[in-house]
Specification:
Elements lengths: L7 H7 L1 H10 L18 H6 L2 E6 L1 H18 L3 E5 H4 L10 E7 L5 H12 L3 E6 L5 H5 L2 E4 L12 H21 L4 H23 L2 H10 L4 E6 L2 H17 L2 E6 L16 E6 L5 H13 L3 E7 L11 E5 L7 H19 L18
Parallel strand pairs: 1-2, 1-3, 3-4, 4-5, 6-7, 6-8, 8-9, 9-10
Helix pairs in contact: 2-8, 2-9, 4-8, 4-11, 8-9, 9-13, 10-13, 11-13
The protein binds 5-amino-5-deoxy-1-O-phosphono-D-mannitol.
Protein name: Glutamine--fructose-6-phosphate aminotransferase [isomerizing]
Subunit structure: Homodimer.
Catalytic activity: D-fructose 6-phosphate + L-glutamine = D-glucosamine 6-phosphate + L-glutamate
Length: 366
């Protein structure tokens, strides 16, 4: 059942080109002019009614929500608040019929997410579920559902669910942007074309994992690792650090690079590995200056950048490249090396990759 792979996690990492392709394939117009989300049937008046959107989820799905906020705000220009389900449900959120609440859940069974969804409904909000399991409790409870077609995810560490959630949030944002005319038809086409390139680009990353394996073996016995990045790179940093913690038990922290000076820089000492994500062109120079700050404290910096970026090599000890893409889609590629790093670090340390200690695949109790 593991199809020749040693663990479900690595099998599922390798399934991402297919999972991403299946999630988008029937939802893009043949001529790339638009995203077709027949499951929604919204018109521009429906969208006008959404004064604010809430995205609520747990764990990795929450991290997909952080990226989703960025997509919707940037493309569809609707304000979005992202929250962790266990916080949202108990904080008396200010919701009514002028809101849309989007819950994201691979399993569709996470109890806090389900409770958050019920609370949003009770307050009158419209609801949309993004889930991977057809007929799950969350799918049944929401007004609308968009399924991620990732196929069954068995490993506790979520991988292909995350990338397909990002693709879904991206398609949703482009769909909303088209309806609201907040992006030009040309830009929308460009984004859809970039989306179509992803499966091939994911495949390209997965063809050459040796350098990442080497880093994992080399740094797998460090007890602390830091992930830094700005804007969408920060969102991916959050996911990279969770992945590393949950399966390799290495203490990892993700920091918005600009926040380092406000405390965390005190922890950066000689030899501490820092993974610096630098895929976002609009904050690239700012990220480089943060890289210089950690380098000045003798951290070992691994840069993660888009192919063709030669500048970064001057500032870091090692560079991992991902194929060039629109910066909005970079998270979907950038997370792959981080998943692999976590996987190989866990293997190096002899951890039970598919069933990490104390964790369950689906958290159906509070
Ligand atoms: O099934 P869900 O997407 O609702 O699960 C949410 C989290 O429990 C899940 O993403 C968890 O954080 C993963 N183990 C992360 O790899």
């Amino acid at each position: 059942e593991k199809g020749g792979y040693e663990h479900f996690m690595i099998k599922e990492i390798y399934e991402q080109p297919k999972a991403v392709r299946e999630t988008m394939s029937s939802r893009l117009a043949k001529d790339d002019s638009s995203v077709l989300l027949d499951e929604l049937k919204w018109n521009k008046h429906d969208l006008k009614a959404f004064k604010k959107i809430f995205i609520v989820a747990c764990g990795t799905a929450y991290h997909a929500g952080v990226v989703g906020k960025y997509y919707i705000e940037k493309l569809a220009r609707i304000p979005v608040e992202v929250d962790i389900a266990s916080e949202f449900r108990y904080r008396s959120p200010l919701l009514d019929e002028n809101n849309l609440t989007i819950v994201i859940s691979q399993s569709g069974e996470t109890s806090d997410t389900l409770a958050a969804l019920k609370e949003a409904k009770r307050l009158g909000s419209r609801t949309l579920a993004v889930t991977n399991v057809v007929g799950s409790s969350i799918a049944r409870e929401a007004d609308n559902v968009i399924y991620t077609w990732a196929g069954p995810e068995i490993a506790v560490a979520s991988t292909k669910a995350y990338t397909t959630q990002l693709v879904t949030m991206f398609m949703l944002a482009v769909y909303m942007a088209d309806l609201k005319a907040t992006v030009s038809p040309e830009r929308s086409k460009e984004l859809i074309k970039a989306l179509r390139n992803l499966p091939g680009q994911l495949h390209e990353i997965l063809e050459d994992v040796e350098p990442i394996k080497t880093f994992a073996q080399r740094y797998g016995f460090n007890e602390d690792v830091f992930f830094i990045g700005r804007s969408l790179d920060y969102a991916v940093a959050l996911e990279g650090s969770l992945k590393l913690k949950e399966i390799s038990y290495i203490h990892a922290e993700a920091y918005a690079a600009g926040e380092l000076k406000h405390g965390t820089l005190a922890l950066i000492i000689e030899g501490v590995p820092v993974i610096a994500l630098a895929t976002q062109s609009d904050v690239y120079e700012k990220t480089l200056s943060n890289i210089k700050e950690v380098k000045a404290r003798d951290a070992v910096v691994i840069g993660l950048a888009l192919k063709g970026d030669k500048q970064i090599e001057k500032y870091v000890d090692h560079t991992i490249y991902i194929p060039d893409t629109d910066q909005l889609l970079a998270p979907i590629l950038a997370v792959i090396p981080l998943q692999l790093l976590a996987y190989y670090a866990a293997v190096t340390r002899g951890c039970d990759v598919d069933k990490p200690r104390n964790l369950a695949k689906s958290v159906t109790v509070e």
